[in-house]
TrEMBL record:
This is Molybdopterin adenylyltransferase. It comes from Tepidiphilus thermophilus. Keywords: ATP-binding, Molybdenum cofactor biosynthesis, Nucleotide-binding, Nucleotidyltransferase, Transferase. GO terms for biological process: Mo-molybdopterin cofactor biosynthetic process. SMART domains: MoCF_biosynth (SM00852). NCBIfam families: molyb_syn (TIGR00177), PRK09417.1 (NF006932).
Length: 196
């Protein structure tokens, strides 16, 4: 029996959390992960305002109490006064993984010049990897899956390719992906035979 991965999905948006507009962040995250993951998983979802203490409490609850191996936030990464998701994430993290922030901006720049405005980070807290994504719902697929050419060939890999091995390294469940959506990369010595 494969262990079920618990994945935290956190939409950080003042207006969606107040009902000004419908949240499209959580559905976009859940839909993309449902396509990408072939190993068992379930989501713990939270829709919260851009309030640093609320973001920190939510991340701590998902990591420490609910045992999420992975948490994605969406929203609040820009330069506006109320954008504080990266500060909250760094405050609860024990180690930063700067490569994720760098690469997520690089991928974003393939789609929009304003990707440079995102201050998104990724951190480890205990056995949890926490990754910030921008608030624009389309940025979720762009960042996680990467860029394809007109024939569907990947021309800039998305960051999800590195996430299953990152989770192996922090002692989490073995995540398997559908290579048609995103091919997970692991060193040969870390690949387990598929149990079907
Ligand atoms: N959760 C969401 N659901 C739907 N659309 C969103 C969501 N978050 C952001 N967007 C869209 O992406 C745009 C940029 O996101 P950004 O996080 O900068 O929003 P914002 O202007 O800070 O407002 P808010 O925090 O109230 O969503 C928004 O103007 C909105 O059109
Ligand atoms: N891949 C990708 N990255 C992106 C975008 C996008 O559309 N696609 N939008 C950018 C924009 S317009 C902004 S302002 C910043 C910060 O967005 P946030 O405050 O909603 O997190 O993310 C950027 N990163």
């Amino acid at each position: 029996m494969k262990a079920e991965a618990v994945i935290g999905l956190v939409s950080v948006s003042d207006r969606a959390s107040q009902g000004v507009y419908e949240d499209r962040g959580l559905p976009a995250l859940e839909a993309w992960l449902s396509r990408a993951l072939v190993s068992p998983w379930r989501a713990e979802k939270r829709l919260i305002p851009d309030e640093r203490p609320v973001i920190e409490r939510t991340l701590i609850e998902l990591a420490d109490e609910l045992g999420c191996c992975l948490v994605f936030t969406t929203g609040g990464t820009g330069p506006a006064p109320r954008d504080v998701t990266p500060e909250a994430t760094l405050a609860v993290g024990e180690k930063e993984l700067p490569g994720f922030g760098e690469e997520m901006r690089r991928i974003g720049l393939r789609f929009v010049p304003t990707a440079i405005l995102s201050r998104q980070v990724a951190v480890i807290r205990g056995r949890t990897l926490i990754v910030n994504l921008p608030g624009q719902p389309k940025s979720i697929q762009e960042t996680l899956e990467g860029l394809r050419d007109a024939d569907g060939k990947v021309i800039h890999a998305g960051i999800f390719a590195a996430i299953p091995y990152a989770i192996d390294l922090i002692g989490g469940p073995y995540l398997e992906t559908d290579p048609a959506v995103v091919a997970a990369f692991r060193p040969k010595s870390a690949v387990k035979p598929s149990q079907g």
